[in-house]
């Protein structure tokens, strides 16, 4: 068992979009674990017609000082285009996603199929919870999509969660909870990193 304190999470800015009068950032998250380097979501690397009116400004992982080859494992919280658009950069590496999300992404309209199944992309479909590495586990968190998942990092104290779009903005934590947000709150996290917020969300302490 590795020392939980030695697991670190680093957000990496990869793009922003213009949504409802504001710039909405897109972050991916790198988890440095003694047994490997894990990337949670992959952002976007190119423009897509469906996002043209969002005036995307891209800073793809492949065009910044980022060691692509140093990533051992990729996790997709879900497969919307702004979360899987860089999956092709990790062809041949295992990409962990909930099976339900993969099935939906291959059959439903609000996904960009050619990004989901880009050449060389190899998924490891997951059914429910999975311990990816010691102290690091995948937990289903349906709501934003049916097959969404979050990554729970044991820190020795309260866990740190990488939530993807479990809440798209902090305010969503005050809205009626989805099953996913309920599950996240029940874990009593110290903080939750989100894909579209600059700062992590922290539960209010009363
Ligand atoms: Zn999404």
UniProtKB/TrEMBL annotation:
The keyword Secreted does not apply. Coiled coil: none annotated. It holds the Pfam family Lactamase_B. It is an enzyme of class 3 (hydrolase). Residues 25-196 form the Metallo-beta-lactamase domain. The keyword Cell division does not apply. InterPro entries: MBL_superfamily_lactonases, Metallo-B-lactamas, RibonucZ/Hydroxyglut_hydro. GO terms for molecular function: acyl-L-homoserine-lactone lactonohydrolase activity; metal ion binding. Its cofactor is Zn(2+). SMART domains: Lactamase_B (SM00849). Keywords: Hydrolase, Metal-binding, Zinc. Its EC number is 3.1.1.81. Belongs to the metallo-beta-lactamase superfamily. PANTHER family: METALLO-HYDROLASE RV2300C-RELATED, QUORUM-QUENCHING LACTONASE YTNP-RELATED-RELATED. This is N-acyl homoserine lactone hydrolase. It comes from Saccharothrix ecbatanensis. The lineage of its organism: Bacteria, Bacillati, Actinomycetota, Actinomycetes, Pseudonocardiales.
């Amino acid at each position: 068992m590795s020392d939980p304190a030695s697991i670190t999470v680093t957000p990496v800015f990869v793009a922003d979009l213009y949504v409802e009068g504001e710039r909405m950032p897109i972050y991916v998250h790198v988890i440095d674990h003694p047994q490997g380097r894990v990337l949670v979501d992959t952002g976007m690397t190119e423009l897509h017609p469906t996002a043209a009116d969002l005036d995307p400004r891209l800073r793809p992982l492949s065009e910044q000082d980022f060691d692509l080859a140093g990533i051992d494992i990729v996790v997709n919280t879900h497969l919307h285009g702004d979360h899987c658009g860089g999956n092709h950069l990790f062809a041949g590496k295992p990409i962990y996603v909930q099976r339900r999300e993969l099935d939906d992404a291959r059959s439903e309209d609000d996904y960009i199929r050619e990004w989901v199944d880009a050449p060389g992309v190899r998924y490891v479909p997951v059914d429910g919870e999975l311990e990816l590495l010691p102290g690091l586990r995948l937990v289903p968190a349906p709501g934003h999509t049916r097959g969404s998942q979050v990554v729970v990092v044991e820190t020795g104290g309260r866990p740190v969660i990488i939530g993807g779009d479990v809440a798209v903005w902090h305010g969503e934590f005050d809205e009626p909870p989805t099953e996913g947000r309920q599950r996240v709150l029940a874990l009593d996290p110290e903080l939750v990193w989100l894909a579209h917020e600059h700062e992590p969300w922290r539960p209010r302490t009363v």
